[in-house]
Design goal:
4-stranded antiparallel sheet, mainly beta, 4 strands, about 40% strand
Length: about 80
C-alpha cells in the first residue's frame, strides 16, 4: 500500500474574494478581424458609422482589402 506523500503537509487556506457585483468585465467588444466571404478568410476590418438611430448608432464593418460588408453593430452606449 502506498502512503500519501502529502500527508504531513498543511493544506493552504485560501480566502475567498470579496463578493463581486454582477457587472461584466468589459462594456463593449470591438471587432478587429472578421471573416470576409469575398476574400474567403479572416481580414482586418474598418468600422464606419452608417446611421444614427433612436436606439443607438449603427455601424457597419467593411473588409479592408475588397471593401465588402462583413458585419454590422448597433452601439447602444450613448453619452
Amino acid at each position: 500500500m502506498q502512503q500519501n506523500p502529502y500527508a504531513g503537509l498543511k493544506q493552504r487556506q485560501y480566502r475567498s474574494r470579496a463578493p463581486r457585483q454582477q457587472e461584466s468585465d468589459f462594456n463593449e467588444l470591438e471587432a478587429l478581424e472578421l471573416y470576409c466571404g469575398e476574400c474567403r478568410k479572416a481580414v482586418p476590418v474598418r468600422k464606419r458609422l452608417l446611421l444614427v438611430l433612436p436606439e443607438g448608432d449603427k455601424y457597419e464593418y467593411l473588409c479592408q482589402y475588397c471593401g465588402s460588408k462583413v458585419g454590422d453593430k448597433i452601439d447602444r452606449n450613448r453619452y
